[in-house]
Amino acid sequence: MTHHVILGAGPAGVIAAETIRKHAPADRITLVGDEPEPPYSRMAIPYLLIGHIDEAGTHLRKTADHYERLRIERVQGQATAVDTSARTVRLDDGHTLTYDRLLIATGSRPARPPIPGIDLPGVHHCWTLADARAIMERAKPGARVLQLGAGFIGCIIMEALQQRGVTLTIVEMGDRMVPRMMGPAAGGMIRDWCEAKGVAVHTGTRLEAIEPGAPLNVRLSNGHAVAADLVIIAAGVKPAIGFLENSGIRCLQGVLTDEHMQTNVPGVYAAGDCAEAFDKVSGTTIVSAIQPNAADQARVAALNMVGQRAELRGVTQINVLDTLGLISTSFGNWQGVPGGDRVERVDAEHHKVLSLCFDGDVMVGCNSVGWTDHVGALRGLVEGKVRLGVWKRELMQDPTRFMAAYLATAQAQSRWAGAADTRRR
């Protein structure tokens, strides 16, 4: 009987376990999670903070006996080492698991900046259900909350906090909000929008120290001091792969995988936020902390673990963010490529930015603020690597015509490809 050990009980780990069970009814499956709660979605935590769901609503599977029915053995523990020669995993409680196939789906850990006072009571990450409970205890209406970080995750947390009725201050080390998703004009517009909604925003600013007291006193690098009843650290995440040191499993930013989600060690796979997989748009390997990618990677890994050959189509570089009612999107290589063209249209009056990047006549990336109609066409142009021909010049003159460009080029090329396939058959 083949024993599959899955490290990580988030969406990737759960989907992989279920996929293995579907295709290998007799195999043994052990799912290792490092928290006491049933497997849950971190992306549901903001909805818990708002009050739209209770803790049970964050659970990935809603029936209490789901894992027992599928004969998926759940173990609470955190991996501390992997021995690929002996095919064993050591856990933090001293136990050792032996595996035939191993899936690393340990996700990410919140970054922990070296800030004096970061361990004080009232300072929390917003990553676990335990964090959420502590935040809800302090984030009462009127409470003064300071949040470090205005990236993608930080903006989602900010949305939930504002709906709790707190007085909110955001501190971002980058020169704009959402700096890893938005260019200067777009990030600046999101900042203006948040400030108009009553949020104090400090960009290009660090937390120098958090000083004890009731309230806490937070000193900023721009000379300001902010009184806070609660400080939230949302300064980004890193793949949780430290336990793989000296394992022989190759890691760059994340666990490096091939198109089958297998690592350089046969029988060892990775999926989700900790995996570094090939992205067909950029032509490089990337870590993509996006749940749809995690699900795709988990299914591909699981099928290969049970001997069914499957390949990952690619990593989707897509972010769609709602910041206090302002929608922003980012697809592909929004920063552009060396020697490529770029066009940007800013409509400050209507809170809109549209930025398109090209490599020759192919759109390789884009980002937008305030656009909600037909943004799927932007994604289609980028992911489809559509040759725009004369439409590239049209978009350089008026980027808002992207839907017309999509209809004229992507659909036409799709019809041509379909006809060619028919002729080949």
Automatic annotation (TrEMBL):
Keywords: FAD, Flavoprotein, Oxidoreductase. Gene3D superfamilies: FAD/NAD(P)-binding domain (3.50.50.60). Residues 3-281 form the FAD/NAD(P)-binding domain. One of its GO terms (molecular function) is phenylglyoxylate dehydrogenase (acylating) activity. InterPro entries: FAD-bd_OxRdtase, FAD/NAD-bd_sf, FAD/NAD-binding_dom. Signal peptide: none annotated. Its cofactor is FAD. Its EC number is 1.2.1.58. Belongs to the FAD-dependent oxidoreductase family. This is NADH-dependent phenylglyoxylate dehydrogenase subunit epsilon. It comes from Tepidimonas fonticaldi.
